[in-house]
TrEMBL record:
HTH luxR-type domain: residues covered: 775-840
Keywords for the protein's UniProt record, in alphabetical order: DNA-binding, Transcription, Transcription regulation
Positions of transmembrane segments: none
SMART domains: HTH_LUXR
Origin species: Saccharopolyspora hirsuta
Name of the protein in its database record: HTH luxR-type domain-containing protein
PROSITE patterns hit by this protein: HTH_LUXR_2
Biological-process GO terms, alphabetical: regulation of DNA-templated transcription
Length: 840
């Protein structure tokens, strides 16, 4: 194979040789990991120098003691020429010392000495030489050079399979050259094990244990001490074969790991037994057993650890359980427990059809009650995941024929009730759980998730998060089940969004991969949670993307209402009423059921928004009254508390002050004070009812700081209306500019058009070219909230007194004052007082 990708290195050596011919001789040390083609590079350099007419000499390092021509001192070489020493890392100490002396003598001579070595070989031994020499590190081949190597190996354009293999070679020419071998695994294994020497066994165990493997796991599998393992790993790292970080060992090249694993399968059984003896986690042991025959001891071990393995299965666990189930004879007592574990593993790995077949077949065999309960649980969970709560209840009813439900099934009954909106039924099912059974980790996790849901519905958001934190603690300290993990993630995202916490979006992304595995019912719920959180955080285009992805699913499980409701609300804000109407019609065409019942207020609110935008205030008020009366959704208090600001605004715009006051009273009753937006929501609603501009501006600022952009824009607009109605035109324009800027950032064209029309009635206009860009300095650069703070400071109020007047935090006022001073170029509050009356 030719030399590829080394033009820069050859140019560097050629330049060094040319400089030597001009009397600037030097020592160049080229460092390269094994397989990077160091010898090939040095040979190519010598060939170039010979072609250029220069005298050349290659010095061999002789095994086994590493003697060279320099072992007895510096030889008498010709003044001009090139000398190459390969494999310097294998040379004896005398050679290294001779090179120290030679490096000092080369200046002023016409001799270039090039030495090549592996960089990881006892670095301290070569430290002084590296300081005396010019060093050059040979890098792995880049993409174009790899393509050239592959084309040479394939005799033309390389096939895609060869390209994929090459991606695991890390640009190592030696490994690349072995990819075309008839028995690639054997060729690669032979090269790396010879290179590893005494550490070859450790290298093999690292390959079979996975990537990465802990030092403790390697020590257990190899029957060695962790200290000895670390020492061996350091030697392998020096060869460029392995790396260790924070106690985890990985092989540098995927091609090497795959080849060694394929050729070291015989080690897996002994590795599994050693890992079991050392108390390794069951999933680590299973990764080894999947590659070995299922023996009686294997089946016994699987039965003992089935619950831990099946709750959060890997593909290896599913494969292992499938083989274990096919092995026993029909009367083998391990068959039914293994089959139950397989059904659970299939369920939590997203193989729902297979899980249903396994569980249904297992029930036909009439197993003992504990195993029968596990099969029933699998079938019930499949129905819950499909949002078929009636089907889930039917499966549980079949078990009730045998007596009271065991704890695992009782909590599933409670979950089904809860998801159908039946809080009383959920509480009754929870009360039926045997206290002893509640100590089981999965049952305990499920009970906490149920209680978190109940607290969330009743607006105890802090309490809900506390329960979810307890679930997470159990998931970390006990064995984890994917079902409880995904439920806790989904619930946490909902609670975080209700608290106006942007972290809801991060939680959604944590849940997304597993949700995709577990079925359409979970996925469409996740899309709904994500779309709502994105809407609330002002990321409307992304929210529409989530809705589009959801509506492409084969079954929306009656989530059409909230999904199309969110889309309709965005389109109303953007002024596209025909498209909003189309979404509303799609939402109205499906009766909500299951979890979607908890989101029914979203559809109702979208209908109210559309009616209001179309000028049908009576229709809009009628919908708001239904929400206030608890006629929409399964728990109207949850709905009113969540969307109260929008309802109160519609009520006030429609002239129904009594309805608005009733809504605010409901919000106060439901407020627990633990939501980032509750304080601002109540401020805003009361400000609307009382036409209190100070309260409206303060609420607008809090909304903006909490990231609630659409409500912040509306609050600023409402403040502008109150200011305009009281004749304060200049202040109204400032507030109006703030509102328009916030609407513009959301591309809420419909809101801008409506605000223009409503404020024009008060004589407040923003001009034909759109809102004037606020200057960066001077009094006109202040926002409406900042202007109000400056006015109160000018009246002599302290920051705390300003905060109390505006019903905001002192921190918010401190921030405003700092911004005011910066924009006005003032150094103190005194200048604000003096400058307020002189402002233009």
């Amino acid at each position: 194979m030719g030399i590829h990708g080394r033009d820069e290195s050859l140019r560097l050596l050629a330049n060094a040789a040319a400089a030597a011919q001009d009397g600037c001789g030097r020592l160049v040390v080229v460092r390269a990991d094994p397989g990077l083609g160091l010898s090939t590079l040095l040979d190519a350099h010598l060939a170039q120098m010979r072609a250029a007419g220069l005298p050349t000499k290659r010095i061999a390092v002789l095994p086994p003691h590493g003697r060279t021509a320099l072992s007895v001192g510096t030889p008498e070489w010709p003044e001009a020429g090139v000398v190459v020493i390969d494999d310097l890392h294998l040379a004896d100490d005398a050679t290294v010392l001779a090179l120290h002396d030679l490096a000092d003598e080369l200046d002023g001579r016409s001799l270039l000495v090039v030495a090549g070595r592996h960089p990881g070989a006892v670095p301290a031994r070569f430290a002084r030489l590296d300081r005396l020499a010019t060093t050059h590190d040979l890098p792995p081949l880049d993409g174009s050079a790899v393509d050239a190597v592959l084309a040479e190996l394939a005799g033309g354009p390389p096939p895609e399979s060869l390209r994929q293999l090459a991606a695991g070679a890390g640009g190592n020419p030696r490994l690349l050259s072995l990819l075309a071998a008839d028995d690639r695994a054997s060729a690669v294994t032979a090269w790396v094990t010879e290179l590893a020497g005494e550490d070859a066994a450790l290298l093999r165990f690292a390959a079979v244990l996975g990537d990465p493997a802990s030092v403790e796991e390697l020590a257990a599998a190899a029957g060695s001490d962790p200290v000895d393992v670390l020492t061996g790993v350091e030697r392998l790292a020096a060869l460029g074969l392995a790396a260790e970080e924070h106690g985890l060992v990985s092989l540098r090249h995927a091609v090497v790991r795959q080849a060694l694993a394929a050729k070291s399968a015989g080690l897996r059984g002994s590795a599994a037994r050693a890992l079991i003896d050392r108390g390794a986690p069951p999933e680590v042991v299973a990764e080894q057993l999947v590659h070995t025959p299922v023996e009686p001891w294997t089946a016994a071990w699987l039965c003992e650890h089935a619950e831990q393995l099946s709750g959060k299965p890997t593909p290896a666990v599913v494969d292992l359980l499938e083989r274990a189930v096919s092995r026993p004879s029909p009367g083998d007592p391990s068959l039914h427990p293994l089959r139950a574990a397989l059904a659970e593993a299939q369920l939590w790995s997203g193989q729902l059809d297979a899980a249903q077949r396994t569980a249904t077949g297992g029930l036909i065999a009439d197993p003992e009650p504990p195993v029968r309960h596990r099969f029933r649980a699998v079938l019930t969970l499949i129905r819950i995941g499909e949002m078929d709560l009636t089907g889930a209840a039917a499966i549980l009813d079949a078990e009730r024929e045998h007596g009271e439900l065991p704890p695992r099934l009782a909590v599933l009954a409670a979950t089904a009730c809860l998801l159908s909106g039946d809080l009383a039924g959920a509480e009754s099912a929870v009360q039926a759980v045997d206290p002893d059974g509640a100590t089981h980790p999965v049952v305990a996790q499920c009970l906490l998730n149920i209680d978190a849901t109940r607290r969330m519905v009743l607006r105890d958001l802090t309490g809900a998060l506390e329960q979810l934190d307890r679930v997470d603690a159990l998931l970390e300290t006990e064995f984890a089940e994917n079902g409880q993990w995904i439920m806790s993630r989904m619930l946490r995202a909902v609670v975080q969004d209700l608290r106006h916490d942007p972290a809801a979006l991060d939680t959604v992304e944590q849940a997304r991969p597993l949700a995709r595995e577990l079925g359409v019912g979970i996925v469409v719920w996740l899309h709904t949670i994500a779309a709502l959180a994105l809407f609330n955080n002002g990321r409307w285009d992304e929210a529409l993307g989530e809705i589009e992805a959801a509506t492409e699913l084969p079954d929306l499980h009656s989530f059409e209402g909230p999904l199309h409701g969110i889309a309709a609300t965005i389109l109303v804000h953007r002024g596209d009423l025909p498209a909003a109407r189309a979404h509303i019609e799609l939402a109205e065409g499906v009766a909500p059921r299951g979890i979607a019942l908890f989101y029914e207020q979203i559809t109702a609110l979208a209908q109210a928004f559309l009616a209001d935008a179309e000028g049908d205030s009576q229709r809009s008020l009628e919908i708001v009254r239904k929400l206030a009366n608890g006629e929409v959704g399964v728990h109207h208090s949850h709905a009113v508390a969540t969307v109260g600001t929008r309802l109160v605004r519609i009520a006030m715009a429609g002239g129904d002050r009594e309805l608005a006051e009733r809504l605010v009273a409901q919000m106060r009753e439901l407020s627990a004070g633990d939501s980032l937006g509750e304080r601002g929501a109540l401020m805003y609603c009361q400000g609307l009812i009382d036409s209190d501009v100070d309260v409206l501006l303060a609420a607008a600022q809090e909304f903006a700081e909490d990231g609630l952009r659409i409500i912040a824009a509306r609050a600023a607009e409402d403040a502008a209306k109150v200011l305009a109605a009281s004749g304060r035109s200049a202040d109204a324009r400032a507030a109006y500019r703030t509102a328009i800027e916030r609407y513009t950032a959301l591309t809420a064209t419909g809101e801008i058009q409506r605000a223009d029309a409503e404020l024009r009635a008060f004589g407040v206009r923003r001009g034909a070219t759109g809102p004037r860009r606020r200057p960066k300095h001077g009094w006109d650069s202040l926002t409406a909230a900042e202007h109000r703070v400056a006015e109160l400071v000018a009246q002599g109020l302290t920051n705390r007194e300003v905060a109390e007047r505006l019903i905001v935090s002192v921190r918010t006022v401190d921030s405003h004052v700092s911004k005011i001073l910066a924009k006005l170029g003032y150094a103190s509050r005194v200048e604000i007082v003096l400058g307020f009356d002189r402002r233009t």
